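Section 5: illustrative case.
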């Protein structure tokens, strides 16, 4: 962290033909962001200017072109130009050039994060199919960062003030979900979720609900045996390790009855099982957080939204929440380490509270 106690937040541009720049610009137009961090955008000042000119009723936003995070101005949007000046923009269209640009910016941001030049990373969305065509051998940011930072296992956690949901399997075909779920895998994800709730979200004794896989949790094996053979043994094993895990619960009744209010987090079995209810409940403020990494990475909970690109229609709330969450999680983790070492912690005033209802409450 810099000497002025403000974190340097690196923001990778994502796909420049989607809504990334719009949500970044709108999020950083809120002056409260600069009270808690110094933003550094890894992208293109040319593309930044292009999208800024498309936005109506935008307050004055000052930028600062820099070559290294050490040059960052604490009260301006700092931009590290990662792309050539002749870069083109085609709003709403997935192109190979925009995917390659996404990768270049991400790699530069990760390089600086690895070197300690920035404190946390917020990633704007890119198109996974286009990235694959550009030679990106990962299914998304999560797998890429796991590889880059040598984490043995990670967990995608969707975070909001309403609910936190982790998923055992994330970006894989539904046809492969059942064969991918194992008792060992579930227990491993529960360990990560339990630890991140403690160190990153200040929950001393978290309660975690585990969802079933089949309708009605298999109806005693009639509709599937994964609950009996895999999930229930995983919950029992986690309990034996001191993790407060409960379940499995049938997802329809669990969310329909609002049972998630009784828990600090939920572990879903697959992507849509967790993300559909999450986005229904908290789409506007949702944040995607990668737990299990030695660094802090968050992102907004939406995609490239090509159909909205260049139209001044995209909401910045999820991006702004992702920035705030990255700062909060970093400081929570530092406090956790200090408390572990027996050091005194002074409470810190958060300048955006309580006015900003569009940020996750970190408990």
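Designed sequence:
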């Amino acid at each position: 962290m810099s000497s002025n106690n403000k974190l340097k937040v690196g923001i990778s541009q994502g796909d420049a033909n989607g809504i990334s720049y719009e949500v970044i610009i709108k999020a950083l137009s809120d002056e409260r962001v600069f009270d808690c961090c110094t933003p550094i955008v890894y992208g293109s000042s040319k593309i930044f200017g292009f999208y800024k000119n498309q936005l109506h009723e935008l307050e004055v936003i000052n930028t600062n072109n820099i070559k290294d995070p050490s040059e960052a101005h604490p009260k301006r949007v700092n931009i590290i130009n990662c792309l050539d000046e002749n870069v083109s923009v085609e709003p709403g269209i997935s192109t190979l050039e925009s995917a390659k640009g996404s990768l270049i910016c991400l790699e530069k941001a990760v390089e600086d994060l690895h070197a300690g030049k920035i404190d946390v990373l917020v990633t704007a969305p890119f198109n996974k199919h286009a990235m694959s065509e550009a030679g990106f051998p990962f299914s998304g940011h999560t797998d890429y960062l796991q590889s880059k930072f040598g984490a043995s296992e990670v967990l995608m956690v969707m975070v909001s003030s309403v609910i936190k949901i982790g998923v055992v399997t994330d970006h894989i075909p539904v046809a492969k979900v059942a064969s991918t779920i194992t008792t060992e895998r579930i227990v491993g994800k529960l360990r990560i979720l339990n630890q991140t709730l403690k160190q990153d979200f200040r929950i001393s004794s978290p309660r975690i609900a585990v969802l079933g896989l089949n309708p009605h949790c298999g109806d005693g094996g009639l509709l599937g045996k994964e609950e009996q053979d895999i999930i229930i043994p995983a919950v029992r094993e986690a309990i034996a390790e001191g993790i407060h895990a409960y379940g499995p619960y049938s997802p329809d009744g669990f969310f329909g009855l609002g049972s998630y209010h009784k828990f600090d987090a939920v572990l879903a079995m697959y992507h849509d099982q967790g993300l559909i209810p999450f986005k229904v409940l908290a789409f506007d403020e949702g944040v995607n957080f990668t737990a299990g990494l030695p660094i802090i990475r968050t992102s907004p909970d939406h995609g490239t939204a090509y159909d909205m690109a260049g139209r001044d229609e995209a909401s910045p709330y999820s991006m702004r929440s992702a920035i705030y969450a990255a700062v909060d999680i970093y400081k929570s983790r530092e406090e956790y380490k200090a408390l572990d070492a027996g050091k005194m912690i002074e409470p810190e005033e958060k300048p955006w509270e309580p006015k900003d209802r569009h940020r996750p409450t970190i408990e």
